[in-house]
Design goal:
- With 526 residues, this protein is an alpha+beta fold.
- The protein has three domains: 14-68 and 85-273, 3-Layer(aba) Sandwich (Rossmann fold), CATH 3.40.50; 278-375, 3-Layer(aba) Sandwich (Rossmann fold); 393-520, Alpha-Beta Plaits (2-Layer Sandwich).
- It contains 14 helices and 31 strands.
- The strands form seven sheets. It has an eight-stranded antiparallel beta sheet with strand order 27-24-26-25-29-30-28-31.
- The longest helix has 15 residues, at 217-231.
- The chain starts with a helix and ends in a 5-residue tail after the last strand.
- The structure holds guanosine-5'-diphosphate.
- Guanosine-5'-diphosphate (GDP) binds at residues 18, 20-26, 88, 139-140, 142-143, 253-255.
- It is found in: Cytoplasm.
């Protein structure tokens, strides 16, 4: 049996981030394919369809989507890999950001024709907050793409991270012949093996006289020039990768499998095993035998009949055992974690043990909150909480039926405490008329659905124009007397902190100019 150290050392836990349609699902599928977790490409998407027949939330059934981000575990070459999926499009929500708190590194998928897109930028920023390693996979090289050097420059300019091309594409579109592996100094020439299988690879040296025969005269000349040019650039620095300052860049095509396997091998070598994590009592060593974890996501009401909730936790240290007794720091209670589940490629299954780096979902009788710490009895440290992220969409919300005021206040406060939405009131008034802030529109739907089905309250919701929220760090006067422009509003949260919701940079300028003594906090998280 493998020792604790061996088990933890083989864990690699990372998130895949991208703008919708860049190819995140396709790349994930190919990873699973190599890990033998699925037999055919197409199964990951298939999983979504199957979810419609299970007893997940009604809203998931209606929209055929997975409301919250999921995790997939598989093994490959001795590694035990946990991929955290970050949903895009209309499924985007605060959970997407929180999921990134559970990852040790991130793979950023970029469409080679489109470059850095808005959602890539948002997700990147959250990863950068934590200084985790970020690996770039430039996808869709089998199509016409932009110049590879220009793409690297765009990543550097737009995201503020240095790049180092690990391999270099040989042509693109129909002419995409393969990549040049800079470390091995070898050409990997791909031949199509059908989209569901691994690509066939022929290797060659750069100065091989037969190279023009393999990839053509023109591409040989371009490649030799490019490689020379690259050689003049900065040296590779693994330390800079590990602290999130340098992103290794790989080129490939997830759809045709070109470059996926070399990427996975190289990525797994560079990405770190579970690292020590900061708590209020100092760093906690991932390899310590004592189990500890923090909750990063709560999924409510997957089964309507039972009104149950599932708390997802990232194991930060030691080994989890199903029968052992654990300690929930925030409530001060000892407990067993019941129905612990791991998410495999196609389904969930009950697990008897899990290790630092793994994600488990456990039955939550309503005691866990986002950011909570679970340890072994006797240990009371807390992992630093999960920040709330700046909402971008706001609605004013009140109950349609004023007789339902009590249920309304109870519902919104509970749902907000769970972290499904952020709620605010106006200074000096109560919670019967609130502002709800979210990062993805889906959160409004989930909120509305849950208020109706769990609390019996129909909502009146009205869109508000704000797109930003900034925290007030200091202000000496009365918040109610502040001079505001028409498209801004002062709000107060459940923790009695004050914020300004506003539309654009112009409003901020106005506010600071007309309210002497106003100090704003311009952090990404609020
Ligand atoms: P996601 O939204 O980021 O998960 O993107 P998907 O993986 O669903 O891919 C979006 C679309 O791009 C799908 O039609 C894929 O078949 C296609 N696609 C993904 N990777 C590639 C690729 O390497 N080359 C080409 N030509 N198409 C791709």
């Amino acid at each position: 049996m493998a020792s604790l150290k061996e088990e933890i050392s083989r864990r690699r836990t990372f998130a895949i981030i991208s703008h919708p349609d860049a190819g995140k699902t396709t790349l994930t599928e190919k990873f699973l394919l190599y890990g033998g977790a699925i037999a055919q490409a197409g199964e990951v998407k298939g999983k979504r369809a199957r979810a419609a027949t299970s007893d997940w939330m009604e809203i998931e059934k209606q929209r055929g989507i997975s409301v919250t981000s999921s995790v997939m575990q598989f093994r490959h070459n001795g590694f035990c890999i946990n991929i955290l999926d970050t949903p895009g499009h209309q499924d985007f929500s605060e959970d997407t950001y929180r999921t990134l708190m559970a990852a040790d590194s991130a793979v950023m998928v970029i469409d080679g024709a489109k470059g850095v897109e808005p959602q890539t930028r948002k997700l990147f920023k959250v990863c950068a907050l934590r200084h985790i390693p970020i690996f770039t996979f430039v996808n869709k090289m089998d199509r016409e793409t932009r110049d590879p050097l220009e793409l690297c420059e765009e990543v550097e300019r737009e995201l503020g991270i240095a790049t180092y091309p690990m391999n270099w594409p040989i042509g693109c579109g129909r002419e995409f012949k393969g990549v040049y592996d800079r470390e091995k100094k070898r050409i990997l020439h791909f031949t199509d093996a059908g989209h569901a299988q691994k690509a066939a690879v022929t290797e060659a040296e750069l100065d091989d006289p037969a190279l023009p025969e393999l990839i053509g005269e023109k591409l040989t000349d371009i490649l030799r020039d490019d490689v020379e040019l690259l050689g003049a650039g900065a040296e590779f620095d693994l330390e800079a990768v590990r602290c999130g300052k340098l992103s290794p860049v790989f080129f490939g095509s997830a759809l045709t499998n070109f470059g996926v396997e070399p990427f996975l091998e190289s990525f797994l070598r560079m990405t770190p095993p579970p690292l020590s994590r900061q708590s209020d009592e100092g760093l906690v060593d991932a390899f310590s035998p004592d189990f500890s974890a923090f909750v990063f996501k709560i999924q409510a009401n997957m089964n309507k009949a039972h009104r149950d909730r599932l708390a997802f936790m990232r194991i930060c240290s030691g080994k989890f055992e199903r029968e052992a007794e654990y300690y929930h720091v925030q409530s001060g209670k000892k407990m067993r974690l019941s129905q612990p589940q791991a998410m495999m490629a196609a389904e969930r299954e009950i697990v008897d043990e899990a290790y630092a780096g793994d994600i488990i979902g456990v039955f939550d009788p309503g005691i866990f909150s986002i950011g909570d710490t679970v340890t072994v009895p006797g240990k009371k440290f807390r992992y630093s909480g999960i920040p709330s992220f700046e909402p971008e969409l706001f609605r004013s919300v009140s109950p349609k039926d004023t007789m339902k005021r009590k249920q309304f206040i109870k519902g919104v406060q509970q749902i907000a405490q769970e972290g499904a939405i952020q709620i605010f009131k106006f200074p000096g008034s109560g919670y019967e008329d609130i502002v709800v802030g979210v990062v993805g529109a889906l959160q409004f739907d989930v909120f509305e659905y849950r208020m109706r089905s769990e609390y019996g309250v129909e909502l009146r919701m009205e869109g508000l124009p704000y797109s930003h929220l900034i925290r007030i760090k200091g202000y000496e006067g009365d918040y109610r007397d502040m001079t505001l422009c028409t498209d801004s509003r002062v709000l107060q949260d459940l923790r009695d902190r004050y914020f300004i919701a506003y539309c654009g940079a112009w409003s901020l300028g106005f506010l600071t100019k007309h309210n002497p003594g106003l100090v704003l906090d311009d952090q990404l998280s609020v």
